Structures are given as C-alpha cells and as structure tokens.
Amino acid sequence: MKAHILLVEDDLDLAATIIDYLEIEDIYCDHAANGVIGLQLIEKNNYDMAILDINMPQMNGLTLCKSIRELGSSMPILMLTARDSLPDKLAGFDVGTDDYMVKPFEMLELIARINVLSKRQSGQSNHFSIANLSVDFKSKTAKRHQRELKLSPTGWILLEILIRKSPQVISRDQLSRAIWGDEIPDSNSLKVHIFKLRQQIDSENEDKLLKTISGQGFALKP
Fold first, then answer.
1. Residues 179, 135: one domain?
2. In this structure, is the dihedral angle defined by the CA atoms of residues 59, 70, 221 and 76, taken in order, positive or negative?
3. What φ, ψ does residue 192 adopt, rounded to 5°?
4. Quick one: 141 and 43 in the same domain?
5. In terms of domains, do 47 and 111 share one?
6. Residue 65 in contact with residue 43, Cβ under 8 Å?
7. In order along the chain (222 residues), what is the average pLDDT of each group of 10 residues?
8. S-S: 34 plus which of 53, 58, 175, 218, CB 3.0-4.6 Å?
9. Which tens digit of pLDDT belongs to each residue from 169-209?
10. Strands 147-148 and 141-144: what pairing?
11. Where residue 107 sits, what CATH number does that domain have?
12. Among 140, 144, 134, 145, which residue's Cα sits nearest to residue 157?
C-alpha cells in the first residue's frame, strides 16, 4: 500500500521540491504551510507519518508535535531543522519526534527515512492493549478481560486497522477498501461486519470501545 504522509513546511519552494520528488517515488503527500493548518489536517485525516519543519509561523514544529501526541497519535514524526545542536534535538525528542534531518539534506536520504518510519507505522509490533482488550496478531488471539473473542477473517482485518490506528477515526471508505479493494460491495456489508465485531468486543456489561463517530467513521478507544 502506498504511503500517505503530511508535510508541514512554510518554505513553499522546498515544499514543492519535496512533493515533486515524493510523487516520483509513488508517495502521496499532503502539504500545510503552517502548524495550525497541519494540526487541522491531522485531526481530519489518517497519515502514515508526518514531516514537520521546526521554524514556522503561528505554530512551530515543536508545539505541533506536542499537540499531535496529546491527541493520542502514535504516528511517526520526522523533524526538519536548520539547527543541529544536541539541545535542539533533545527538545524535539522531548515532545515526541521520532527522527531528525538537518537542512540542507539529500532527497535520497529523506526517502530512506520515510521508508523506515512508514514501516514502523505499518506495524512491527504484534501485541496491542487498549483498556482491558488485549490482542496478539502473531498468535491470532484476542481477549477482553479473560473472555476470548471469536473473530472472522474480515473481523481480524477490521480489528487490526482500528487498533493500530487507535485512537484515530477510520472512515468507512478506508475500512471498505482495506477489505475489498476497489470492488466494494453495498454499504450494508461493512455495517454487518462492524456489528459482528462490536458484538465480540463490547458485551452488555462492558465499557464500549468500538465507537461510531457520526459522519466520520469508527474508532477503537476507551
């Protein structure tokens, strides 16, 4: 699956160069010229990773990175900076960045960093826990409290997408395409699979984890 990333950079010439190069590498890239717009895009969309410039108007990269983490997002973040001192880098790591690149940089190195971080987002971990829901994708086991969940193959696909992106909202279209690709059946098919998954995750006496977000999609979160 092609990576979909967000670039937040106020240098429009540099941003255009990066976007053009990423297009050649078959990487989708949205762009925001400042941190405020960047945060709005992150709240609306699901990205495999984000590239943030540090020095930006309205909201700098450090503040934006901190805000992203406060949303509960584990999306990998790469910082672009003209500062290469250790205190500057430590400040970025303190607010939740994953990696640094110092300007100027080579585009080939940027692509290499994107590929590494995108793989990290796609999930090298196989075990996840949310509240009292525990899932191990390697052994294909899922439990809520001590109750074992019995999931269909489609149920496992839905659960993996939702839990790896938790607490982000995943749209109906994204879920449908993950299951059926471009051959999406009628809208009731997804509803049925979500209903069955919800029956397994949320019993009558348990707090609801699988939430329907009106007009947006679904999210798995406490």
1. yes
2. positive
3. -65, -45
4. no
5. yes
6. no
7. 86 95 91 95 87 91 89 82 77 84 90 80 63 85 89 89 84 86 76 91 84 91 84
8. 58
9. 888 888 888 888 777 777 688 889 999 999 999 986 778 89
10. antiparallel
11. 3.40.50.2300
12. 140
Domain count, the chain: 2
154 with 187, same domain: the answer is yes
What DSSP character marks residue 170?
B
pLDDT the model gives residue 120: 63
Do 105 and 83 share a structural domain?
Answer: yes
HSE-CB at 53 with a 13 A cutoff on CA atoms is 25
Name the residue among 208, 187, 194, 190 with its Cα closest to residue 159: 194
* Token code pair at residue 179: 């299951």
What residues pair up with 99 in beta bridges, in sequence order? Answer: 78
DSSP state of 73: -
Cα dist. 144→1, 133, 207, 213 in Å? 30, 4, 11, 22
The verdict on 84 and 171 lying in the same domain is no
Q: Domain check: are 111 and 76 in the same one?
A: yes
Give the CATH number for residue 194. 1.10.10.10
The domain boundary, picked from 123, 151, 177, lies at 123
Give residue 193's domain range: 127-220
The one-letter code for the residue type at 117 is L
**Residue type for position 41:** L
Q: Are strands 141-144 and 133-136 parallel, antiparallel or unpaired?
A: antiparallel
Residue at which a domain ends, from 123, 138, 168: 123
Identity (one letter) of the amino acid at 135?
V
